[in-house]
Design a protein that fits this description.
With 335 residues, the protein is mainly α. The protein is 41% helix and 4% strand.
Length: 335
Amino acid sequence: MKRIEGRDERIGIRGSYTDFGAEAPRGNIRFLGGASPRDCSSSSGRLEFARNIASERNPLTARVFVNRVWHYLFGEGLVRTVDDFGHLGEKPSHPELLDYLAARFMREGWSLKKLVKTLVCSAAWMQSSMPGREGLAVDPENRLLHHLPMRRLEAEEVRDSLLAVSGRLDEALYGPPVNPFRSAEDPAKRLWSGPLDGDGRRSVYIKMTLMEPPRFLALFNQPMPKVTVGRRDVTNVPSQALALLNDPLVTSMAQLWSAAATKDEAITPEQRVSRMFAAAFSRAPSEDEVARLARFAQRSAGLRGTDAAAFMRCQPVWQDVAHALFNLKDFIYVR
């Protein structure tokens, strides 16, 4: 096949595709600096266009990127309208900070890893998520960053957390995508079902289709793949709670986690629930939380008719505990 290089095109008169006017030379977009010389006269100009977008002479790209990363970490951007930096968008709450981070981002070679490290090592990130009374009185919307806002996990993070805590997560990189689990297949639409847990693969490797996106992820506001979304919706609806209670993926991960938990070296229920709590929430439980979970386990054992000798080895009892931990709000929120 003959390769067609970039070429100048004639202007369609009033948008017509049959009536053409003068030839328009290839060039850069005006607000990005206008025409720019091409490295090769026969090239399409796309390489030069990309270089103009990712250029230190065009800090808008870096500011938009930095703002989006801030939004993903803190729950909302320094500019709340992450998709609109124009006249209709909101002004930044901290313009000097945004400019500083954008300049540093470009100076450090446009490195996402360095940017994330800078943000998560900052004093703003290390603050408590519990606001003080004075801060709330002065700044109820937390635009001055007097506390770290609590953030709901995104859909993929909820699923990956279930896999990680249960010990099923496959951290391998790359490889082919995995079909999502479906209760019914449709060969005519090429909708095939994959394993319930996706072979443990992270959610980024789940195959997406416009006809039927993964239902579990859709419940937690994963956007439709047909549109670009810079800021996802965050809802708190009954269907999400019902999914964490009844979805087969959740119950399967609770079963897997409990099977491993019953093989640990814990002697008392308090020891085991403390370990499970720390694994689920990455923090040590309080004495009250330990006592309540231990009572819950004992109550489950009583309902199942499990005697004291078999209590610590009874997998269904500890599956109930694991399932309960998955359904606590702390599991799907970052604070």
